[in-house]
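Subject: sequence -> structure tokens, single chain

Hey, anyone have a minute? Need the predicted structure for the following. Not urgent.
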Amino acid sequence: MERPDLNLLITLDALLAEGSVAGAARRLRLSPSAMSRALARLRSATGDPLLVRAGRGFVPTPRATELVETVSQLVQDAEAALRPAATLAVEHLIRTFTLRTSDGFAETFAPALIALLQNEAPGVRLRFVAKIDRDSKQLRDGSIDLETGVVGKTISPEVRAQLLFHDRFIGVVRSGHPLCTGKITPDRYRASNHILVSRRGRDNGPIDDAMSELGVRRNIVAIVGGFAAALAIARGSDLIAGVPERHTASFRNGMFSFALPFPMPQFGVSLLWRPRMDADPVHQ
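Reply:
Had a minute. Here:
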């Protein structure tokens, strides 16, 4: 039996990650024709088309989807095995890490993180970019190093996740708002006007889902794309902003915060990265 060409694993990893011949060719610095020939060899070796046309692009076959995590791990392990062993001296490290984070994360957590880096790894620079959607394409294509987000019950095999902390939604109003005094009941909460935060402009969110379990609705009079904007509006009006407690700690100075008067589950905020970076000591 002819031994397989293990170099094809690197090609397959690039094809599965990029989802296109042209993208994989750019990643491996090959010509499109060379990548097309490599794909033909992979199809022959696996007995599967791997990528099939769908409109102007390609989609992976079920077999290709099954191979994503396995192939990525094999390439990652091979790269680690061929990398010289060295002790990382973080104090001499020069590198920029790009972090994609939700509204409020950098404002709340960056000062302490930067202080830690300045003390232990002064050559490391952090670039924070806004997270405007849940698409992890930037993480997969390598344009960002790390991302924070809420991980659902299922997670793509192309992404690793580590829980950072749990958070919960709370209500926030301006100082002197009528809700600052007396017990906050579901009826008092529902009788007020509200601000909804939705990056995609939806007209409902997690708080509304929880209230629907009680058979009630709140009156939303404003929809904004970020927590900072919601709190700025609440600070200058009688509207209630519903925001994550830990994410918005630095924004709520001088305002009145309260627990929501109905059951509301906590959610976990995780750090996300590409599996292929597991073997990179600097990334670790």
